[in-house]
Design a protein that fits this description.
Elements: E1 5-6, E2 14-15, H1 17-29, E3 36-43, E4 49-56, E5 63-68, E6 71-76, H2 80-83, E7 87-93, E8 96-102, E9 108-109, E10 115-117
Parallel strand pairs: 1-5, 2-7, 3-6
Antiparallel strand pairs: 3-4, 4-10, 5-6, 7-8, 9-10
Length: about 120
């Protein structure tokens, strides 16, 4: 049974316009125009937790489903409290380009920005 979408106003994660645009581009490039961006956390990394980001076509039973500017977003129940209030941005610079996680719940982050502690 697929979880029902919540409104964008209820999304616990904010995505900047650039992050939404780049996620939609990546979904299209993968042939997943009707897919979703899946955000989560896993144990590990140099600070305790690491962010995960990938694409999925269907929600899992414990997922919360949100829509942000036409982009479907899946977040599993375990990850939801850790990601609540987080902003995902897309940045580019001299050292490359990619998604950047700005998490107010993190009390410590690593230098690469992909792991954190709460």
């Amino acid at each position: 049974m697929e979880a029902s979408p919540s409104s964008a106003d209820e999304s616990p994660v904010h995505l900047t316009a650039k992050a939404v645009e780049m996620a939609k581009r990546a979904l299209a490039k993968e042939g997943l125009e009707h897919g979703a961006l899946r955000l989560g956390v896993i144990g590990g990394g140099c600070s305790g937790f690491s962010y995960t980001m990938n694409f999925d076509e269907t929600a899992k039973p414990d997922d919360s489903v949100f829509e942000v500017e036409g982009l479907k977003l899946f977040v599993d129940a375990v990850s939801l409290p850790y990601l609540s209030g987080m902003t995902v941005d897309y940045v580019s610079g001299l050292h490359g380009a990619g998604f950047k996680f700005l998490n107010p719940n993190a009390v410590r982050t690593c230098g690469c920005g992909s792991s954190f502690a709460v």
